[in-house]
Design brief:
Elements (H helix, E strand, L loop, with lengths): L3 E6 L6 H13 L2 E7 L11 H11 L4 E6 L3 H7 L4 E6 L2 H18 L2 E6 L9 H9 L10 H15 L1
Parallel strand pairs: 1-2, 1-4, 2-3, 4-5
The structure holds 4'-phosphopantetheine.
EC number: 2.7.7.3
Subcellular location: Cytoplasm
Keywords: ATP-binding, Coenzyme A biosynthesis, Cytoplasm, Magnesium, Nucleotide-binding, Nucleotidyltransferase, Transferase
């Protein structure tokens, strides 16, 4: 049976750290879907779900699928025959955040979560921190894919007008 993994997240927007995890997941699983998923704790984002999906599609290779989902993650994985969730882990802070979600998803549907340790190049990179840097005019080169960095800076420029 071919293996199918989903990389779920808010991805508002994707960083180069996310892209690295997607590529590494694609080497481990037959099929990988990046899933832009609603996080009820982050209701209003900088970008719409459609924009986030577009950024990812413009960045990843065509064999990686990109989709979005507004409901419970395990309802998507059960409906699409997904075997595994894949997430990046930067530090023990991420571990504390991810552990209950991984255990809850396993309790709800039996799905396991596999964690890939973030490449040390991207260990300090998060969408929220990089957005903060961009918001106040800092240099985000090497943090987001180039077209995404441009869009982030434009969005903050538009918001100031
Ligand atoms: O990138 P994030 O915001 O840390 O990702 C969190 C996300 C979106 C994966 C999580 O909030 C999620 O799975 N949301 C979908 C709703 C759901 O299934 N909630 C229960 C999670 S145990």
């Amino acid at each position: 049976m071919p293996t199918h993994a989903v990389c779920p997240g808010s991805f508002d927007p994707i960083t180069l750290g996310h892209v690295d995890v997607f590529k590494r997941a694609a080497e481990l699983f037959d099929k990988v879907t990046v899933l832009v998923t609603a996080n009820p704790d982050k209701p209003s984002g900088l970008f719409s779900v459609e924009e986030r999906v577009d950024f990812i599609r413009q960045t990843v290779s065509p064999e990686i699928e990109v989709d979005w989902w507004g409901g419970l993650l395990v309802d998507y994985t059960s409906a699409h025959g997904v075997d595994t969730l894949v997430k990046g882990l930067r530090s023990s802070l991420d571990y504390e955040y991810e552990l209950p979600m991984a255990q809850m998803n396993r309790r709800l549907s039996g799905i396991d979560t596999v964690f890939l340790l973030t490449d040390e190049k991207y260990g300090y990179i998060s969408s929220s921190l990089c957005k903060q840097v961009a918001k106040y005019g800092g240099d985000v080169t090497g943090m987001f894919p180039e077209h995404v960095a441009k869009a982030v800076m434009e969005r903050y420029r538009d918001q100031q007008q």
